[in-house]
Amino acid sequence: MSNKALAILFDLESQERGGSPSFMSQSLSKDPQPTSDGDGGRIPLEEWLPITESRKGNVYTATFHLFCSGLGLQVLLLPAAFAALGWVWGVIILTVGFAWKLYTVWLLVHLHEAVHGIRFSRYLRLAIASFGVKLGKLLGIFPVMYLSGGACSILVITGGKSIKQLLHIMYEDDKVPLSTLQCFVIFSCLAVVMCQFPNLNSLSGLSLIGGVMAIAYSTAVWSLPLASIPHRDQNNVSYATKDTSFDTIFNAIGLIAISFRGNNLILEIQGTLPSDSKNPSRKTMWKAVVISHLFIAVCMFLVAIVVYWAYGDKIPATGGPIGNYLELYEQDYSKRAACFIHITFIINCLCSYPINLMPACDNAEMVYTTKRHKPCSVFVRMMFRVFLCLVCFFVAVGFTFLPYLAVLIGAIGLLVTFTYPCFMWISIKQLQRENLMWWFNVLVGSIGVSFSVLFVVASALHLADKGLHANFFNP
Question: What pLDDT does residue 17 have?
Answer without folding.
Answer: 42
